[in-house]
Specification:
With 419 residues, this protein is an alpha/beta fold. It is built from 19 helices and 14 strands.
Amino acid sequence: MARFAYTLLLYLITPLIWLRLLWRGRKQPEYLHHLGERYGFYPQAAPEKLIWVHAVSVGETRAAQPLIDGLLARWPEHRVLLTGMTPTGRAAGCEVYGHRVIQAYLPYDYPGAVSRFFRHFRPAFGVLMETEIWPNLLTGAQHAGVPVMLANARLSVRSARGYGRFRGLVGPAFASLSGVMAQTAGDAGRLASLGVSVVEVCGNLKFDVRPAADKVDLGRQWRQLVGQRSIWLAASTREGEEELVLDAWRRVAIPDALLVLVPRHPQRFDEVAGLLEQRGLRVARRSQSLPDGETEVWLGDSMGEMAAYFSLADLAFVGGSLLPLGGQNLIEAAACGCPVLVGPHTFNFLQATEDAIAAGAARRVANADELGRCVDTLLRDGEHLAVMRAAANQFALAHQGAAERMLDLIERWTGRAAR
């Protein structure tokens, strides 16, 4: 009955779903492309042997790289179908994997749409990245005889409470999974409490994603062009945070210091550029020019270059953490050897953040004022930054290996021995 009520509600809100697509399409026309796929209609032919991986958006798409590489190496006779939900995730898939994978949108969670999806692609098994739980999708997988696993799974205390309020709906979905590969013991316990019967702790797959060498080299080239200026990066900032970052920037009294500001969502690039101009700052945009000696803020209005920005910076603040948004992941910064500051709100990546702080690779600040003071202090203390940089590299290396553990579990749970 719970799934029936959920499905009925989903049909009733269909006009709102279309309005949301149209609204998002105003800023990103790509949202209005491939609409048939969102209802389970796919123009491309499906290969006979297929492994399905679902990564909802950009972060999950990039994080899946070592897992997808491993799947292709262990089962070379299979193609990989990579599904997502956003145009930016699809673009990231093209950039990271090229023609090595087939890409499509996962359909909305209507019973008919998911049935068409499984009839068309007939995957041998499916791997959902992180916590993508859709009741009708998982029921459809059961009916189609497709084992589905959750990889790199994480579930915050807040999210677990939310799922717990709908246990009658999500409990059977969690229970239907062939296995769950959790990031931490805490994640595993929370997932088990919601109905998962087979769960193993594997670590965080994102530690196995090595920064692209060409992007690291690009960041070093920028560093040479910028010269000896102190550089602070505010990475993956969210709506409402840029004002706080600029307030913090006023506390940094280092002559010629440069702020590199990279909003998380590309549709906000122009909005943030307008905010910088309102503040009367001398601004350059990555899409137009490199910073010169007069530039105060360089706006990183590009996609797929975060490793370059981390390689450029002396110090990075990782966004989504000054406001109660849960924070973005600091693992890529650590992999680039960049010291990190985070705000008080990091519940989305709590274990990785706490481990980085304990390792000396990151520091937590309470608010924008403390952020400004900390940036000013650290940019003046080259020795401390060097210690944090070494700690970041060691922290990133020490946590690798999750991909191999996950691949071994997939082989065991599916009963499909690798070649």
